[in-house]
TrEMBL record:
Family the entry assigns: Belongs to the DNA photolyase class-1 family.
Native organism: Oncorhynchus mykiss (Rainbow trout)
Ranges of biased composition (kind: Basic residues): 155-166
Protein name (record): Photolyase/cryptochrome alpha/beta domain-containing protein
Listed cofactors: FAD
Length: 825
């Protein structure tokens, strides 16, 4: 900013302050220019009174200026001033500092002090007037990038953070001009974060006070069919995440407004009614939100955008929830062969790249606030964390274990990510299936609620010292699930392969035992109890319990999906879901694949006993969640029915009482029956089996038909059918249903015994150490003997009662008491 040397200092200071407030100058530049205009001594005397009124409405800016002032004068650094004009000069070259201090103030100095006192009063009055006008007119906002002290930022790995452009810069929202635009509505949904949130940064760029708002409409969230998108545990997490987000917004000078439409008016369009009410109350003309990809929520958003645009309100839906917008993924150049696999999906993304991911965005350090906040309801009014009551009035705190197991804040997500990248990622590639060790990231709930962005996670993972391709591939699986949900909106409740709809089971007792963790198989029971108490289990254990439900209990996959999404009977007072990361797209896709109904068939079936060799070799996981079996030996803890009766008595285990009996006993017979059921339905629905390849045929959605109208598809009555991935054992079973054995049996048999491998590695290490120690001792003994022989000294006598090695023993490392074996030479 040019400053004329002939202007009055008061006018110059007022002009510089106005430039600072509108964002055309930063705090460091303002301080340097003040030193240039006022001089070193006058800045020390008058600067703090000049900025005092900023502490009321611009507290953070006042704090920054104060810290710059203190740092400057504590280190006595002289800035290079472009303009050296100062109202106070030295009286002469010959006067020493001591003489000047002894003289007392001159008449000129007294006049200067009176003058600068008036300047201070005028500038303070100007600040008060300008700040009042800014607050009353809801001034525009500009985004200013200012340098900040790196010690104030959260500690992260510098190797990852410094690779981003703009490192060391943060976004500040400050008033920009007296002509105030209307406020901006920042609509939070599943992006409950400030880090790397394009909608938040877009609200600052839109100009105007920002009003963060969260609207809770349960009917809109659920969607059609049996979606069960939000249950008790999910709602509890959402409640805690909203509380943390509200605190974070208040920390930067903003406020989160909670809204719940009237119950009598609740239904489709409730969000639209709430937004229209906010627009009328605040005068906002811009709404920003992060896009959601569930078909029913996307349809809701399209209605909202269309209606608000008719009301001359601009609505921007920003993409940030997935790495790739699922509605922009096409199969052009790849084809449909292998559709449903993550490899096919990644090929589609590579052949048809969208816009670049860009770099993660730092959070703003302030948000401009409106002069008057709209009316809202308290967070408790949303009813997300409502606990049931007993008849005597006491509360049932069913979420106590979930509350103690998780940190629900955005900082908690960052901490878990840092901890994983510093430790767990080194073992993830080979040991991610271990249930008894923290080798997984546990980040799925934070990703689901948007407290951690997928882009931030990918960026940090690629910047870590140890890259895990398997972990990065999980993000591709996540995007694949949402792509399939956009193609098949009925994915959560309708089987994609028509023949398998007929495979239904009605053994409700087995279902109840599976849900409550009382199947009699310790590994399955431990996983289901962990899910019940903490709302989470790792991916390997999800495969174990899903395989047991479908392949051994012969129950439909919808039962497992519904239980993972929402508990049907948590207690007799209310229902609550089990997974805190209950994601409709991911759960539906994985349960369909596990239930042999999805686009991709799992080519494996987890054995409920043998799988423990890989995931829980020492039984510590079972001991934690099934404490009634804690005393059993490692060899029997995963199969207590094979434990001798005497050992069961000593352990206090009574099968059928303290621990349940097995719901099914002959696992091989149950598995064989499952294969026969598959062969039966494939024969009954032969029109959905490709006669050439033996693969199942799946009806194509219109979107894929319009993208690819080439060959390889069978058209039956106007319906396009596509051959999809089919398990080899199903093809063999259909061709030869009476075969005694199936060479393509998918039950995993070659489990790696982690216990055996770790024991062998330990013995190898100890044996190697022992051999090295022995070789060193023998070498020292030979050196001593050679030395004594060279000096002509006699050999040392054997010490009585000292263990010696017996040369005649078969084991050369065995020892005997001293004196028993002696040398007679």
């Amino acid at each position: 900013m040019p400053v004329s040397g002939g202007e009055d200092p008061m006018s110059q200071v007022r002009q510089m302050l106005r430039e600072l407030l509108v964002g055309r100058e930063n705090a460091e530049g303002f301080f340097c220019l003040c030193v240039s205009v006022l001089g070193h001594n006058d800045t020390r005397t008058h600067f703090l009174p000049l900025i005092q009124l900023l502490a009321t409405d611009h507290n953070r800016l006042h704090t920054t200026l104060t810290s710059i002032y203190l740092e400057y004068f504590s280190k006595v650094r002289l800035f290079v001033c472009v303009y050296s004009t100062s109202p106070r000069r030295s009286s002469g070259h010959g006067s020493s500092p001591q003489t000047e201090s002894q003289r007392g103030p001159t008449q000129t100095q007294k006049q200067t002090d009176i003058k600068w006192s008036n300047v201070t009063q005028d500038v303070c009055a100007s600040i008060a007037t300008l700040t009042s006008n800014l607050n009353q007119t809801k001034d525009d906002v500009t985004v200013v990038e200012c340098k900040v002290d790196q010690s104030e930022k959260p500690k992260r790995s510098k190797n990852r953070r410094q690779r981003r452009k703009g490192y060391g810069q943060q976004v500040v929202g400050v008033p920009r001009c007296p002509s105030a635009p209307p406020p901006v509505l920042l609509w939070f949904r599943r992006d409950l974060r400030l880090h790397d949130n394009p909608a938040v940064i877009g609200s600052l760029e839109a100009g105007g006070p920002v009003i963060p708002v969260f609207i809770w409409c349960p009917e809109e969230e659920e969607g059609p069919g049996v979606t069960v998108a939000m249950g008790g545990a999910c709602k509890f997490w959402l409640h805690q995440a909203l509380s943390c987000l509200s605190s974070a917004l208040e920390h930067i000078g903003s406020h989160l407004v909670f809204l719940r439409p009237d119950e009598e008016r609740e239904g489709i369009g409730s969000s639209l009614l709430a937004l229209r009410s906010l627009v009328r109350e605040t005068g906002a003309q811009t709404v920003l939100a992060s896009a959601l990809y569930e078909p029913w929520l996307r349809e809701r958003d399209q209605v909202v955008v269309s209606a608000l645009q008719k009301d001359r309100v601009e609505v921007n839906m920003v993409h940030s929830y997935c790495l790739r917008d699922p509605y922009t993924v096409t199969t052009e150049g790849v084809g449909l062969r292998g559709i449903g696999s993550v490899s096919h999906f990644m090929s589609c993304c590579q052949m048809n790249p969208g816009p670049g991911l860009g770099v993660p965005l730092d959070p703003p350090i302030s948000l401009p606030s409106p002069s008057v906040w709209p009316r809202g309801c308290p967070l408790e009014g949303l009813g997300l964390a409502r606990m049931p009551c007993r008849k005597d009035g006491t509360t049932i705190d069913w979420a106590a274990n979930i509350r103690s197991s998780w940190d629900f804040s955005e900082e908690g997500a960052q901490s878990r990510l840092e901890a994983f990248l510093n430790d767990g990622v080194y073992r993830y590639e080979k040991e991610s299936g271990r249930a008894d060790a923290p080798n997984t990231s546990c980040l799925s709930p934070y990703l689901h609620f948007g407290q951690l962005s997928a882009r931030w996670l990918l960026w940090d993972t690629k910047g870590a010292r140890c890259r895990s391709p398997k972990f990065i591939r999980k993000l591709a699986w996540r995007d694949l699930a949402y792509w399939q949900l956009t193609l098949f909106p009925d994915l959560p409740w309708e089987s994609l392969r028509p023949p398998y709809k007929a495979r239904t089971g009605n053994e409700r007792g087995h279902l109840k035992a599976w849900q409550k963790g009382r199947t009699g198989y310790p590994l399955v029971d431990a996983a289901m109890r962990q899910l019940w108490l903490t709302g989470w289990m790792n991916n390997y254990m999800r495969h174990v319990v899903a395989s047991f439900l479908i392949a051994y209990l012969h129950l439909p996959w919808q039962e497992g999906y519904r239980w993972f999404q929402v508990r049907l009977t948590r207690c007799r007072f209310q229902g609550a879901d089990t997974l805190v990361d209950a994601d409709v797209a991911i759960d539906a896709m994985m349960w369909q694949n596990g239930g042999m109904c999805g686009l991709d068939h799992w080519n494996f079936v987890m054995h409920p006993v043998d799988a423990a060799m890989t995931c829980d070799p020492y039984g510590s996981y079972v001991r934690k969640w099934c404490p009634e079996l804690a005393v059993l030996h490692d060899d029997h803890i995963h199969k207590p029915w094979k434990c001798p009766a005497s050992m069961l008595r000593r352990a206090g285990v009574v099968l059928g009482q303290s621990y349940p009996e097995r719901v099914v006993t002959d696992l091989e017979e149950r598995r064989s029956q499952s294969l026969q059921d598959v062969a039966l339905v494939r024969r009954r629905f032969g029109q959905y089996v490709d006669p050439c390849s033996g693969c199942d045929l799946v009806p194509l959605p219109p979107r894929l038909v319009s993208e690819a109208m080439g060959g390889g598809m069978v058209n039956t009555g106007g319906q396009f059918l596509l051959p999809v991935i089919t398990r080899m054992e199903f093809k063999h079973q259909s061709d030869d249903p009476d075969a005694a054995s199936n060479p393509y049996n998918a039950v995993l048999k070659g489990y790696v015994s982690r216990r055996r491998n770790e024991t062998i590695a330990f013995l190898n290490q100890t044996d190697f150490t022992a051999s090295v120690i022995n070789e060193g001792a023998e070498r020292r003994e030979r050196q001593e003997q050679d030395q004594r022989r060279m000096e002509g000294l006699p050999r040392p006598l054997a010490v009585e009662r000292r263990g010696k090695r017996t040369p005649a023993a078969k084991d050369r490392f065995s020892t005997v008491p001293g004196g028993v074996a002696t040398s007679h030479r």
